Amino acid sequence: MGYTRARRYANYKGGKKYDETKDYAQLERGTGETEKAAAATVFYDYWKHAEANGLYAALKKQWKHERVKKQDLPQKVCMNCGRPFTWRKKWEKAWDEVKYCSDKCKKK
Ligand SMILES: [Zn+2]
After folding, report:
1. How many domains would you assign to the chain?
2. Is residue 29 classed as helix, strand or coil in its secondary structure?
3. Do 55 and 15 sit in the same domain of this protein?
4. Which residues surround ligand 1, an ion (CB under 5 A)?
5. Claim to verify: residue 108 and residue 60 sit in the same structural domain
6. Residue pLDDT, tens place only, 44-83
7. For 94, which DSSP code?
């Protein structure tokens, strides 16, 4: 977990922002745990500390430049839920056979 994830848990109970049983409607904000907000602060401080490091900043810039952008990855539409999903490393060898966005959709 990092800053963003910790903040999600601080804002939403169980870290869940959307209700999968109600067509992914956004859940009520402000239902999370205050302890997670404290954790987020710790992550944030270390994140800023790391960004102040010249080597880290240079390596991050290089990584951002070299990585494949998510929008450039191939997409498919899930045969179960009908939502689009993006190529993942774990599907590298079997992308042509992938039909579902998740194990959950595959089981249904
Ligand atoms: Zn699906």
Report:
1. 2
2. coil
3. yes
4. 78, 80-81, 101, 105
5. no
6. 999 999 999 999 999 999 998 888 887 889 999 999 999 9
7. T
